[in-house]
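COURSE: Structural Biology Practicum
ASSIGNMENT: Worksheet 4, Part C
STUDENT ID: 0417
INSTRUCTIONS: Below are two proteins. For each, the amino acid sequence is given first, followed by its structure token string. Answer the questions at the end about the second protein only.

PROTEIN I
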Amino acid sequence: MGILNVTPDSFSDGGKFLNTDAAVAHGRRLIAEGADLLDIGGESTRPGATPVTEAEELQRVLPVIRALAAQVQVPLSVDTMKPAVARAALEAGASIVNDVAANRTSPEMWEAVAVTGAGYIAMHMQGTPQTMQHSPTYTDVVSDLQAFFNERLDRLEAAGVKAEQVALDPGIGFGKTPEQNLDLLARMAELRTRARPLLVGISRKSFIGKLLGLEPHERIAAGLACTVWAAGEGAEVFRTHDVAATVQALRMREAVASRKPGTR
């Protein structure tokens, strides 16, 4: 899943693709590098990010989605917490909603997904982007996420969203300490719930910087190491800024795994 941020303030690439033509060109470049789908976002969800209005978010993402939908064949995902933005994006050509606020209490987003039959990514986040890194606390982060995913799938089903529409994202870096992120990666296989695919977003995340003292552009190798680990633990979708490098790492892992006795 190639990341296409149409924002001025995302932590790694903010401001690079605010222009629609630049965003579309970058999306096409990510596909050429091997992206199987694109995730288009108009509101930063980095820690402490300032929320944007519904109108501003629509103005950022809709022209890009419409242009890409007319030019490419890969599925388009809209990265949004707002039901109205999700509905408009699906009408414009997106087919997946990536919802970092899947911990919501209102079913309005889920009803939109149910009506359209769109794919839905339910991500775990403790708090909001403005508060999520204020001393995140868990009884046991893996067990707590297992319970969250099971409860979320029950509520999605009650709202009319079929299980096959849903992927699950543990929300690496969203309301977790570096140590809690490591626990999630180490025990990723335990998060597999009801045969739903796991999506992980590790690319250039701040926990890598905190552990290794690296700036965002210096975190690619460490992120690839985490990605290859997560793939071995059963993760199936990888949200990344660095598509070409991620594809290479995953293909190499597959080549090695295919030589392991009993897997051919």
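PROTEIN II
(use this one for the questions)
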Amino acid sequence: MDPVNLLLAQLLDIARSFIAQLPQLGIALFILLLTWAVARLSRGAIRRSLSSARLRPSLKNLFTLLGSIAIWTLGIMLAALVAFPNLTPTKILAALGIGSVAIGFAFKDIFENFLAGIIILLRREMRIGDFIECQGIEGKVEDIFVRETHIRMTDEQLVIVPNSMLFKNPLRIITDREQRRVTILCGIAYGEDVSAAREVIARAVADSDHVLTDRQPVQVFAREFADSSINFEVSWWTGSTPLDVRQSRDAVIRAIKQALDRAGIEIPFPYRTITFDERAPLAFAVEKPKS
């Protein structure tokens, strides 16, 4: 048989098969359009049903996304069954299983961040607006998405962090509580009265601004014999945000310095004593009389 005629015959068979399947393809297209409409309506219905729930906005968006994915998956499977009658649900599930393994290897990091994002969204510990620290990144959580989290640092730089990093590494939530303890060291000279200095420091800290004494009192403990001073460990409570801590530390240091100055208690400079094994010879220059 002539190859040209053979090719034409095959093309005609393909065209007849395509024309024969046009009704099924039209129905499959209609199913996809219907799936799009149902997914759109379901998103609005889910948002309305979750509007009164006490859930964070990112978690509501997650439920909306998962609902839309489920509807699209079901709609695409129905459209495929209608367009290709030889397909069965078992074959589709088997193909999805093999394809999911291949896609899982190809997009491992994306799926890892996706699953980590779902777990983070389900947690109650970290919320939008919290100050956190992880792997040297410290700032305010602005948005939590399924794949990434946006952190605004204290210098206003925006850092986009993969969710797997927040999930696999130790995460410090700075503003988990409304109050936070701050500690500094304060030294006095060895010749001063330790008890009197402790009272002066404790009173100055308690009376300073940005210090909270409703839950925990101010604590002043003698800590160590340093090179030039006796050091006190001074602890108090203030707000948990970084700005609260900086303002409180500034007010406390200023108050302690003023209180010690008024009480005449010395805050020493570092002293250094130099000793020699032998006496150092001294040479004197004798000025000769002018002739």
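ANSWER KEY EXCERPT:
Q1: The mean pLDDT is 82.
Q2: The chain has three domains: 3-106, 119-173, 179-263.
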